[in-house]
Amino acid sequence: MIIPLVKGLSLTFRRFFSKPITILYPEQRWECYPRFRGRHQLQRKEDGSAKCVACQLCATVCPSECIRVVTVEGPDHERYAESYEIDLSRCIFCGYCVEACPVGAIVMTGEYELATYNRDDTQYNMEMLLEK
Amino acid sequence: MVSLTIDGKEVVAEEGTTILKAAKSVGIDIPTLCYHERLNPIGSCRMCVVEIEGLPHPMTACNTPVVEGIKVTTASGRLLRMREETLKLILVNHPLDCPICDKGGECTLQDLVHEFEIDGAGYQAIREKRESSYATPLIHYWPDRCIMCLRCITACREIKGLGAIDISGSGFDASVVAVDKDKCESCGECISVCPTGALTENLSQYKARPWMVDRVMTTCTYCGCGCQLEINVLDNRITSITTKDHVGINKGSLCVKGRFGYEFIESEERITKPLVKKNGEFHEASWEDALNLVAENFNTIKASHGADAIACLSSARCTNEENYLIQKLMRAVIGTNNIDHCSRLWHSSTVAGLATAFGSDAMTNPIADVLKSEAILVTGSNTTENHPIFANYIKEAVLKKGAKLIVVDPRKIDLVDYAGIWLRPKPGTDIAWINGLLHIIIKENLHAAEYIKERTEGFEELKACVEKYTPEYVSEITGIKASDLVNTAITYGKAKPASIMYAMVITQHINGTDNVKSLANLAMLCGNISVEGGGVNPLRGQNNVQGACDLGALPNVFTGYQPVTNDEVRQKFEMAWGVDNLQGKVGLTVTEMFNAAEEGKVKAMYIMGENPLLSDPDLNHIEHCIKSLDFLVVQDIFLTETAKYADVVLPAVSFAEKDGTFTNSERKVQRIRKAIKPRGEAKEGYRIICELSNKLGFRMDYSSPRNIMEEIRKVTPSYAGITYERIEEEGIQWPCPDEGHPGTPILHVGQFARGKGQFTAIEYQEPAELPDDEYPFLLATGRVFAHYHAGTMTSKGKGLNMLYPELLVEINPDDAVSLGIASGDSVHITSRRGDIKVKAQVSERPDRGVVFLPFHLKESPANILTINAIDPIAKIPQYKVCAVRIEGIKQ
């Protein structure tokens, strides 16, 4: 009976002298891993316009159906998104949208501070998603 | 029958069947790209290669007929490799831009590339960006995506009979180009057969992927063909119109209006709230207030001037259910038979004429019957422009079945190119040439003597009457060469069976009813009624003009042509509707209503979905009549020219926003389905009528058009067997007396509706107004393919206006020279009633001394010129003949 107790406590005492896992958030901030799936970001072409061709594959593949894209066609038959909205309150950050995108127009950033005071602020529109 | 083995399976197929079809019949799928069921095999894509035992090379299954005893392999390793190579070669040119291609998701090539697990890395070539142009601005051609399967070109040639597009260049530089842009009708047949995204719709800015849209199957709202189409809806917005192969009479084809004429539905000009006029200005009002105002005024006028001071124009554009309700409202609630609709202006002479001859007034045969005809007589119908899908059938009959086409028309219409015989009578001389044909047929002993004896009456009188119409005499009146007339009579008389098609140029005359009776004489004389491939077929101009007539929106009959003068019928309807005072006096027709309004006999009018201020003859007169009304209610989707004079305007919905049924020209009752929500506060017509009726103190409670149909069935013998369940997939042709009845495609089989067919002896009489020195030209009015009727719908979008932006008057080159006019010059056209200014188009189509003017666009309303002379029986105005003067305007 005494041996398991000592074993357990020995782990506890060892931790006293190792580097802590928790950080003093928000004074200290966690550096996320490169493949972390945080908030989405839409990419731009070299000329500054959005890369998105509004093919709707992200919206189609999204399991929580939180992406809404309106496709329009310009006078020269170029296809682009008139609006691109993600409802982050429904998003499950699975990353399927990134995987589905044929032109690499959407990526997931390391931004994880997504809590808001207002439910409306979880609705990201195209300008917000294009911001760096 | 031939028996063969395909992949080890024993197959028995008919002789002449291709291997592809034989394989399909036993469930073996052979991949194809260029093959399309409606087209003759093209054999360009090489995907359907199969091995036949004993032959060194593989054969294409789509165009190799079955042979007794052959053993076919459809999927060996060699074949798969060949197909893979074929696809790889296609991908050299075809970009893998599926994510941005409209077709992505329903593309045959995409499916095959997936199936064969190929990527774009097979072969490479230097690609140059190619300029793209196409036959019509409504379709965009993507040369890189084109796989040269030739479906579009074949469809244009075989289905439309046009040949407007063809291949130009060779190898990688080959592309589809317009041979003749003027030939293209922008029907979009090429889009519908394209297996890839090489042809895309160029109209809707909003794009949707195929899997995202709801496709709502419904019936087209334009002409009487009654085509079945799918409205593609995304987020309550229409993104395009598509079709399904094999569905409806159109079998996947549409015309330019059906495929591209949907923009009006979402037009900004739609009325979305009830409007009430105060001090000459329209103000938005609530439904409650607007309907109260209508009820109040109707009650006052009824109390002070009697029920007959109220009249109603119903609409051939609205559903059967709405037409039924509005005539019920007028008859049971208001208490008058003053209800009519624009069929008066188009086909009332058909109703009167065919009812006299046969006892029933509709197309006697379905349109697909022309494929069985040996000869087809088309007169007074510019079928290619007004009934494009019917025209497809006529062309198919001529081109593929070898039928002889006889066109009798003063204009050189497009069908003339397909015709064996073209007669060009002077406008308004129809009875003369028909009598001439009767004369020759009887002289040559080509008439069906047995049939005439058994099934008809009045032959002797007819024979005596046409005695004097010798070819020479007829030639004098009509200008048709005597030998041509004899030729025509012999061709028609010898053909068994022969079909007759006609439209407005026959009906819109002061002797329209007689014209129709004459055609009936001709058909009966040769025993062509009640047989497959025969018949007298009036092509009805509007989507539901047949239905509006059937459902009693006429002053003299209840639903199913049950006369209001018959006491028994009235009692039946009194019982059904729970009223006891139905009027037995025949009401006023459209043309009489307006005259009565001018005289002060009609004080109030309810106009549902019609625009008489553009479509009726002698507009200045109509305008004056409408102004004389005390109270005018207009129910419409736009603020039309007529609605501007209204006291109350009620916003209704278009065909895409409501449920119901339309009856097409072939008497086929077909469903329309709600695809999008009504715009703004607009309401379905049946709700408006029900609410108004309730305000007038008569309860009408229908939860849906289905319930109204149930009531229609009870009171209408010819519709008794038609339920929504039965017409869910495919429409039914009335008469359909009970639920077990399959419908009646061909009328008068065995016996005419009136017992015996009635020959009527008819003498030729001159048109009401002939050219003289002051007004030397004959003016005929009509339609062009890009527009429809008053243009209320077709002029609202950019697409159709692109094709025909402004009115053009067609003038014969000889006349143009003598007047000193060239194409594009502005001219003044003056008649005794008014004048308009339009641009001229010099064209071979009209004869010398005749000009043709479409009446669609409000900028130059052709009907200011037309004469209000009417047929004494049918009261149809004479749109087709009036005398005008033309003067060039000096720039």
Tell me what the structure shows.
The complex is a heterodimer of chains A (132) and B (891). By secondary structure, chain A is of the alpha+beta class. Chain A is built from 4 helices and 5 strands, in the order αβαββαββα. A 3-stranded antiparallel beta sheet of chain A has the order 2-3-5. Chain A has a two-stranded antiparallel ribbon with strand order 1-4. In chain A, a hairpin with a 5-residue loop joins strand 2 and strand 3 (79-87). Chain A starts with a helix and ends with a helix. The relative contact order of chain A is 0.21. The mean pLDDT of chain A is 92. Chain B is α/β, with parallel strands linked by helices and 891 residues long. Helix content of chain B is 29%, strand content 17%. In chain B, a hairpin with a 2-residue loop joins strand 1 and strand 2. Chain B starts with a strand and ends with a strand. The model of chain B has no long low-confidence stretch (mean pLDDT 89). Chain A binds chain B through residues 53-57, 60, 70-73, 77, 79, 102-103, and chain B through 98-100, 104, 140, 200, 205-209, 211-212.
**For the largest beta sheet of chain B, what order do the strands appear in spatially?**
15-14-26-25-24-16-17
Give the helices and strands of chain A as they follow along the chain.
HEHEEHEEH
Number of helices of chain A: 4
How much helix, percentage-wise, in residues of chain A? 10-25%
| Counted beta strands of chain A | 5
Mean pLDDT of chain A: 92
Q: What is the first-to-last residue Cα distance of chain B?
A: 73 Å
CATH topology of chain A: Alpha-Beta Plaits
Radius of gyration of chain B: 29 Å
Number of domains of chain A: 1
Largest interface: A-B, 14 and 13 residues
Give the overall shape of chain B, derived from the CA principal axes: globular
Q: What level of helicity do the residues of chain B show?
A: 25-40%
What is the count of DSSP helices of chain B, taking H or I runs of 4+ residues? 28
Taking the alpha carbons of the first and last residues of chain A, their distance comes to 58 Å
* Total strands of chain B: 36
